[in-house]
Structures are given as C-alpha cells and as structure tokens.
Amino acid sequence: MAVDGIEYPSLERAAKALRLPPHILSLRLSCPDFPNYQRKWVSNEVEYDHLSGRPASRQNTPIMVDGVNYPSIKAAAEKLDIKYEVVRYRLKSPNYPTYHRKDEVKLPKPLQSPNNQCLVPVIVDGVEYPSMREAERALGLPPNVIYNRVKSPSHPNYHRKGEAKEPARRKSGTSKAVIVDGVEYFSLNHAATVLRIASTRIRDRADSPRFPNYQWKKDSRYER
C-alpha cells in the first residue's frame, strides 16, 4: 500500500509508521475522501477488493458518466481521456452524482456541519477519532449523529479533542444527583449515559446497602 506516495509492505507497518490505529487506516484506504491512501495492488486494469485482495466482482460492470454508457471504467477513462483512478474515485464519491455504475442509484452526499467541523478530531468514550465522519464509520452510526452528540450537553462522553465539555444544567426538582465510585453525576440519566449502565440498575444499586460505591448525593452513607 502507499500513503502520500510512500509505499509500505503491509497495513500494520503503515499504521505503526503513521501512528494510526489499523482500523482507521483501513477506513481511509476504502474512503474516497482520502485519495492519497491507496492499496499497492490496485492496477489500471483490475479493481481489487480492499479487504480480501481478490479481484472485485464488479470490475467489468458497465458504468454511466454524464448519461453516457461505457462498458467498463477503463473504457470510460480512455474515451474521456482521464486517468482510470480518477473515474474510479468519482464513481465512489458523492460529489460526482453523474458518475455511477449502470442501474445504480447513487446516494446523495451526507449533510455536513458548518465550517468543516466534521474534520475536527473527536473523542468518543475515551477513544480518539481523526474526524466525526470516521467516528461514525467506525461506530456504524448514521451521518451527523456524532456532530449532534458533540453539540449536546446530554452526551458528555462525546466531545472535540481538547474541549472541556460542560455537563447539561440540572433542572431543579426534576433529577437527583448520584455518586458512583466517588464521581458525582447530576442525574441518573447522566450516569447511565457515561457509564453505559441502565438507569434503573444505577437507581437500584444506590438504594441498596450492598453497593456502597453507588450513593445518592444526599445519602447519609456519603455525608461525613
């Protein structure tokens, strides 16, 4: 494989050299947003599957460019006098809706947040991702979910790298603070979101003397 023109003998070696997690590197290799990340075995005549390394089953599938039919990517590239890689990139990219495989309904480009905020590194549950889009791909989430959760104070475990996110303001009389392992959460839902434990289980543990590390803030077990 090659990144920015530099060849690496394997994905693992490239990940180590670039200081990227292997799954992030694999995502970039298959993502049209990173044309500088390429598998070494991709040639101008044969398109290979990025995971198995075997020839893709659709390599000779007819395609359409600006409403004109072509028997293959290679034929389109020769007729249009552009590089094979350019045609293949445009087939994958939502930025070129007129480039698509025959009988394919190309999905529209996902909505993006203003000011290219999707490109800002984000932290989700303590794991860093290079961008919101890559976090969504890695976690299997629909477009804009990460962006909305990063903005929402209800998801303190979703935030931009280097950002000190303030928790949601507690409405008086509507929630009760709970302390788990010495960490205070302003409500059951807040604790459940951060700890990934059902709020009912947290409530039951806070009510039970068998779990002294789960306490209501006003609980006599916590007060000295």
Task: Please describe what this structure looks like.
It is a single chain. With 224 residues, the protein is an alpha+beta fold. Helices cover 29% and strands 15% of the residues. The protein is built from eight helices and twelve strands. The protein has a three-stranded antiparallel β-sheet, covered by helices on one side. Strands 5-4-6 form a three-stranded antiparallel β-sheet. Strands 8-7-9 form a three-stranded antiparallel β-sheet. Helix 3 crosses helix 4 (84-92) and helix 7 (188-195) crosses helix 8 (199-207). The termini are far apart. Mean pLDDT is 76; it is low at 41-58, 112-117 and 219-224.
Unreliable stretches: 41-58, 112-117, 219-224
Distance between the termini: 62 Å
Structural category: alpha+beta
Quaternary arrangement of the chains shown?
A: single chain
Strand percentage lies at: 5-15%
The largest sheet, given as strand count, sense and whether it forms a barrel, is: 3 strands, antiparallel
Percent helix? 25-40%
Task: Kindly report the average pLDDT value.
Answer: 76
Q: What's the arrangement of strands in the largest beta sheet?
A: 2-1-3
N-to-C series of helices and strands:
EEHHEEEHHEEEHHEEEHHE
- What is the count of β-strands? 12
CA gyration radius, whole angstroms: 25 Å
The number of helices is 8
Shape: elongated
